[in-house]
Amino acid sequence: MAIDDTKRSRIISSYASAVLDIPPDSDKWDFKLLTTWLLLLRDYYAQEIPGFIYLRPTTSSNPDWVHVSKDLRAQVLSIAIEPEASVSSTQHLVSQEVGKQQDDGSVKLNHKTCVLMLRDDEIEANGSHQEIAKIFERLKVELLLTISTSGGASIASIWNDALKQPAFSPCRVLKSFTQIFEQVSSQPNIKADEIFCATDLDIESMCSFNSKKDVKNAEIPECLHVLINTHYMEHPQKTALSSSTRDMSYLELGQKSAAVAQILVNRGVRPGETVGICLEKSIWTITILLGILRAGAAYVPMDPSYPPGRITQILARADIRHLVISDTLRKKLGDIMAESIVLSENEDLHIPHDWSKEKYKEIHDPAYIIFTSGSTGTPKGVIQHHKAVSLSLVECIEAFEINSSTRFMQFSSLAFDASILELWSPLVAGGCVCVPSEEERSSDLESTMRMLRVTDAWLTAGLVKQLQPENLPDLARLSVGGEAPSEDVITTWGNRVKLNNLYGTTEAGVWDTAKLAMEPGDNPRNIGRGIGKVSCWIADPSNAQRLRPVGAEGELLVQSPYLAHGYLKDPELSAGVFLHPSSLKWGSLVPISEGSRIYRTGDLAKFTADGDIVFLGRQGGFIKIRGLRVDLGEVEHAINSTASVYRSAIVLSKDGGSNVEMAAFVETTEKIETQLADVLHTRLSKVLPSYMIPTMFIPVEKLPMTTSKKIDRPRLRRDLSQMSQKSLERFRKGGSVATEYSTIPSTKPRAIEISCMVADLLTSRDKIYADSFRGKDFPLETVGLSSMQLVSLATLLRKRYNKKITIGSLRCHALTVCDVEDLVLKGKKETADGIEARNLIDDLTKLKPKLPFAYSRRKTVFLTSITGFLGSQILRSLLRNPEIEHIIGLVRAKTEEEARGKVEHQAKLGQWWEPSFFNRIEVWLGDLGKPQLGLNTSHMNRLWGRHGHSPVDGIVHNGARVNWIESYEELEPVNVHSTLEILSGLSEMTFPCPLIYISGGYMPTEQESLSEVAKKLSSAPGYDQTKFMSELLLEEYNKHLDKQKGNIPKARTIIPGFIVGTRQEGIAHQEDFLWRFAFSIARLQAVSKDLLGHLNVAGVDQVSNLVTDVLLQPDRYDKHTLKCFDGINVLTLCNILEDKLNIKIKKFDHSEWMEILRSDIDQADFDHPFAPVFEWLQANPLGTASQGSLFNEQETVTALERSVEYLVGIDYFLEGSHKSGPGKSVGFSRSNF
């Protein structure tokens, strides 16, 4: 058989010809040729029912090739190819179709290919190359097959449009055609599924595409943690982990991960075992992950947002005996099979003497198990061994140019396989992992990346759209994955950074393929070639034994020595997708690297002409949501498992990209159509992660079925596409409420503006629908905002109002546009033009610890009451400030050992203790109620710099006796005389050091004078009086300084409001007034309407950081007395209590509420927390009309939420916890000195 391959001068068309080995007068010659073309189209276009236009001239004159006329006979041939059917039966169907009469005028030339038959008498008029070229170009098809007869021979020619299908070279397609034709002619009984379309030319090309001349030979494999180990000693002081609040060196990472490993081993963790971990992303979490590996175990990550039901499933599936978890989540999960391990970085970690030694190096043990969505309703675990992941990681490091200067952002969830590259590649390369907090990820990612000086990042394409390259000067390499980037992403970023488009599966290596250095104009779906030793093949999705030709669509197969071991406890599923090349008919034709297997990805793709791979999407049953793979079978299984549901089917909205939505059509067994979305969303949220829950639930009487009794999903997709956005609104969560939304009044211009922001985000779907929301106060959850659109909204709000709003806040149930305006306005300090002023000094404070140079001389600070609730946190803040070297703390105790024990005990209660702090704290035995603070002469000399001693650099006087019942005389020695002693000592000094006094009790308004306050407090409780007296003493001291010459620092007074726990740990002081108040509200499930005003509240970490800041940067504050008017509305406290305790709080008139409270106190058979402060509340107003600007309000709300969670966890809100005797909750208590 001779093949003539001639390329035309015109760019769009080229052709190849071959003489067939069968004469045109043979039996059923034309039907065999047409059958051959159908079989070829089935593979090239991945069509189960391939079709084409069959053209035959009716006369020898020149026909009109654009319109079907009397001179041209055209017929559509479209026949279903049954895999098990013989080619002879398919040929018979072809003959039947060709024999049918068809109205020529009804034929539309809308197929991609044509077949033109020319016999001897037609060749002279129409068969020349020039004429057929004209015919081909005017038909506007991608492929044209011409069959001509000349001199008793049959000649087949393939014409190709190189612009539409550059990979379908005529020579390659012709080779496939002749190969299939030979099989059809010689084997009439061969099954359609046994016919090979891919030729030796395709195999040769694919092998060439997969050839890696520059790939280095694999190094001797090591365990993942062993690869990191070398940096502990070689670069001990180099930063390994970095966040906005702290850094961790390689030395510290090595020591602490070894300590974690030792703890786990002591708790019974054995080599080869699986250890679950369910923690928020942080530097400490990464340290624990490394510790698990160093203990010889594999980690199984679970996202803290998972519902308890899913976590329980994973624990059981992976036989997890030990789960590292936070204390809060442990209480949320309740009883579980695994032993819960709460690891605090602040506990007394014992660093093993051989901490740098790796004891467990078995490369064939699992490194981690990541669970993905599973069709059976149970998530499936993918097991990755050390050898595979380490070698794959090394190849990714080389491909992505990761090195010791890399600062890679760890953005994705630890439960998602994209985290592997982010976590481990920088550490293996000696670089740095940058860890944004959950709030920073969702509210202000761009500025966080800039602050952390991120050089490398992986993000989904939807998130990349939220960033601007000019705002990220350090970013050098940006990888996108999970979904195809849009053309505008490539245009925006292609010339600014090295933009990589990545493709990967959990079951394969770290990443499988990469299109490196994308440029504007590149195909967004081009995922490049295999990384390192990864090879890629395209096969028939229904039969991996059949390779598809180059350029044809099919299932992407990944061949790699780094594939996962398989699915946990599912050998049958593993055997179906993890294949050995020897099991494939074409396996012997391709090069096999040592240990490589083949994984069936379930993704559709094709080769380009130059060997890159173009991703075409998932096969049915799988989708990607925000880059995460979702098995629709698992979601449908969860829906069908709920009461009142018979069966369901999920389809995707036509809006593609990052805004795709899942819509569930549901057959219900109960009449709950109007509330279906609310009911199912609530039920599914207990077993599925949020990203797997459909956004629409559409009730139907019966799901449509195909003739084969399968759910007719194409019809459901059509039905969904024909529904208006307005009609879909009632099928969303919250959509059962009335959809006639009120108009926002003109007095709320920001709310109107926010409604327009939301409308703009919805415009791409339905402009009329989107415009209906402009100026309306609607709940956000009812309008169909996708997760990425919520991210966009948060970004718009931050940029427009300079206010960070978290995604979690925007997801709150029933949150309306006006509620969003309230979030924006909370705690804002605005300029004249209505835009919030940026506090650049605050920004500087956050950045200063990142400066590489050391401070000229680090300071020593004297702190009173370092074992109290606030004092312990002030100590924490001072220790973590790089300007502070040494803290001297006054402690009331009998011995120094007892005093140190108290300090360490309180720090551990607060979960912040580190052994390295021990040598930086000096304890002095003393008593604030005694002369000279109860200090000995030596300590007094050192404190005031007498007899040649260097004085301290600052004093923080925080100690006091807090008692709301005792008189002024009883409290005076501790609360007043101690202040007098300190001021007297300062007055003796030549250069007095700064003094920060922490006051309390009554907080005057800005308008009240000292004399007015003194008059008001004349009959107040002794505590208010003594604290105010100390404030007066400081005023006298400052007046004295005004008379002196020289720049002597004035004494500063800080008056906090109510103090709650920290934003991180939430450990609250149970005896504080606020919690007594909260207990009463929760117990009564009622609150006074008069007490719903503003409360001065802050987190204890916010107050302690303010103290440190005032001490070290006094010029930032122009007033000598700082009154912390910041806080929240009592209604916010009530909302938090309702949410955390699952209660409803009613509002009563004040007198009625006070009477109910009094009665509850009198009748209580336990120590009612509010009893000691009831009379104080009767005599004093609770709220204030003032608003502060010292603290971030959202951070205060977070601290309040964490505190309530902590108190719920220790049963504070149960009356049994307040009965006298043993068994009472252990926590912070007043030091009373």
From TrEMBL:
Keywords of this entry: Ligase, Phosphopantetheine, Phosphoprotein, Repeat
InterPro entries documented for this protein: AA_adenyl_dom, AMP-bd_C_sf, AMP-binding_CS, AMP-dep_synth/lig_dom, ANL_N_sf, FAR_NAD-bd, NAD(P)-bd_dom_sf
Alphabetized GO MF terms: ligase activity
Occurrences of domain Thioester reductase (TE) (ranges): 863-1106
Domain AMP-dependent synthetase/ligase: 234-568
Matches recorded under NCBIfam families: AA-adenyl-dom
Protein name (record): Nonribosomal peptide synthetase 1
Species whose genome carries this gene: Penicillium subrubescens
Record lineage: Eukaryota, Fungi, Dikarya, Ascomycota, Pezizomycotina
